[in-house]
Inverse folding.
């Protein structure tokens, strides 16, 4: 069942990325399985834990970690859980029980409700807002949960992360934050850097795509999404191509350079830059 769910997520993300660009492939979420992620999950306040001691049904407890990061358990009293992984907490409770009335206790912990690790997704996604993560989570999984990219989404994602980093900046509260930038084009090369995995407290912003404008003798003049490598000819095609009276070979490109408008007579194979205006004039004949 879990395998099918993971497969469905992968297919969904392929589809979402296909909307963004036909050349971006599916990613692989490292080598961690669902069960491995659950075992490595770092527990925090408000998480709900299902704790069982093998062969001792009366020791079964469902507990919520307090805001102070702890809970109570029989024969152990106060357990400081926050900051420990599921595996570490199992070992801790087993050790405490073995110091009392139990011989070689086998403790199993399952996180029944994940509440402590949260991220915020903003910008060009269908459902911006706060989302709960379950440990090591790929950034595209979170974007999938947020409904995927909108049609106006660009290829750049910015992550604001509290902590120390070479790219750290001081925020308005005086805390040190790291500003990380993710270029979706890098996924084409199978880049698996850790920055593609979100962390508790991250704010993720999906930028709006750059735009270009095609006017004049074209069938659908207007504003269009800019993509890296887009040519003048391709831009005119986005606008439905030239009309019967249009002369695409004499197109004029207007571009802002150093605060001033510059008019260029480009080749149809020339690349287009963000915010360029392409005007297709009438044919002489």
């Amino acid at each position: 069942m879990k395998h099918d769910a993971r497969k469905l997520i992968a297919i969904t993300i392929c589809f979402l990325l296909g909307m963004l660009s036909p050349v971006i492939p599916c990613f692989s979420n490292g080598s961690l399985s669902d069960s491995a992620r659950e075992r490595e999950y770092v527990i925090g306040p408000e998480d709900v834990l299902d704790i069982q001691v093998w062969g001792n049904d009366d020791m079964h407890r469902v507990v919520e970690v307090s805001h102070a990061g702890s809970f109570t358990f029989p024969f152990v009293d106060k357990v400081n859980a926050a900051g420990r992984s599921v595996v570490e907490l199992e070992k801790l409770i087993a050790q405490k029980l073995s110091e009392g009335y139990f011989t070689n206790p086998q403790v199993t912990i399952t996180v029944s409700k994940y509440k402590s690790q949260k991220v915020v997704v903003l910008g060009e996604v269908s459902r911006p807002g706060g989302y709960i993560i379950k440990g090591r989570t790929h950034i595209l999984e979170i974007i999938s949960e947020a409904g995927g990219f909108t049609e106006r989404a660009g290829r750049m994602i910015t992550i604001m992360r509290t902590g120390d980093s070479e790219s750290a900046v001081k925020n308005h509260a005086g805390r040190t934050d790291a500003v990380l930038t993710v270029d979706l084009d890098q996924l084409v090369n199978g880049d698996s850097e850790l920055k593609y995995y979100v962390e508790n407290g991250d704010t993720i912003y999906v930028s709006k795509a750059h735009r270009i404008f095609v006017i004049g003798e074209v069938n659908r003049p207007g504003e269009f999404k800019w993509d890296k490598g887009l040519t003048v000819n391709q831009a005119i095609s986005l606008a439905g191509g030239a009309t019967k009276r249009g002369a695409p070979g004499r197109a004029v490109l207007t571009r802002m350079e150093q605060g001033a408008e510059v008019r260029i007579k480009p080749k149809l194979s020339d690349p287009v830059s963000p915010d360029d205006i392409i005007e297709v004039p009438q044919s002489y004949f």
